[in-house]
Amino acid sequence: MRAFIVLGSGPALAELVIENLNRNGVETVVLSIDHEPEIQTVEQGVRLARQHACNLVVGFGGGSAMDTAKAVAALATNPGDILDYLEVIGRGQPLTVPPLPCIAVPTTAGTGSEVTRNAVLGAPRQRVKVSMRSPMMLPRLALLDPQLTLSLPQSITAQTGLDALTQLIEPYVSNQPNPLTDSICREGIRRVARSIRTVYYEGDILPAREDMSLASMFGGIALANAKLGAVHGFAGVLGGMYGAPHGAICARLLPEVMDVNVRALRERAADSQALERYREVSQILNENSEASVEDGVKWVRDLCSELNFLDLSVLGIQKSDFFEIYKKAELASSMKGNPIRLSPDELCEILDRAY
Fold first, then answer.
1. CA nearest 225: which of 167, 162, 290?
2. End-to-end CA distance of the chain
3. CA distance 290 to 108
4. In angstroms, what is the C-alpha Rg of the chain?
5. pTM for the whole structure
6. Structure confidence by residue, pLDDT tens digits, 173-230
7. Environment class of 294 (CB within 10 Å of its CB; exposed 0-12, middle 13-18, buried 19+)
8. Residue range 238-263: average pLDDT?
9. Domains and CATH numbers, the chain
10. Sign of the four-CA dihedral 175, 178, 179, 182
11. Residue 292 pLDDT > 90, yes or no?
């Protein structure tokens, strides 16, 4: 048995994993990444996995490590080029051969990538993020241990935590919810609401870290079985164009998208189920059955301010690119799950507010 290990963070923890594998007769080939995965990162991994005849892939780290691992596992067994399988900039062909078995071990709590069937990859030349997607890309095994997240710095704790919250709220209010995702979204939002400040200020509190790890996994299941919305519609575009951290983008956009969505729903779809769902989100966040929709927006906005998230301008986004940003975001698959179709003016308003 020879395992291809994609390491994203926590080298000391990773060394223990590799030592244990070696001790049990599993040889290892290691690829370390310290940035969000790009096409060339995956291509490098596939070459190594094939060269060493690996028959198992392990992703150990954050979403970047797990997405890279899933893509390498898929491409190591399937013929052709990575562009054959990528959406948007490639041919989007389906996988025809089952991937190598993949094990996902998250060391952050936010992306939920350990339970999703796709890998999000950056394409720097085209300045976009694109997905490789197949039901066969779901990891064979996901191992969640909140203790692996205890050493996360405040900034990563905050970014991944807001990613998790966004991936719970957006499927819940999306235009394609379902009873399964509804139940796990409600439970996940509840866990984030009671624990995100604790893990930010006191990172060694294990029960709070457990809440965030579970909320992250719930968000991954929810986005894989429902839809997302405008926050992720923008976030994929902004991440691809500027390389800004995904969680930081989500945090800055979430309260503005919530606010604009609610106004648009009231103006054009007053009988929409999504309005009541936004109210339920607010009631969970505020632990108050009388909380209004506006109270929910305020809760999220106050949280993001308290956790020191920066405006889009500070993250490097250029106002002169707003037209290109919103045109690309309109076409994003995530945007199609938004509870109401937003106008160009409303999309630009969201960017303006977050800027």
1. 167
2. 51
3. 34
4. 20
5. 0.95
6. 999 999 999 999 999 999 999 999 999 999 999 999 999 999 999 999 999 999 999 9
7. middle
8. 96
9. 2-143 (3.40.50.1970), 152-354 (1.20.1090.10)
10. negative
11. yes
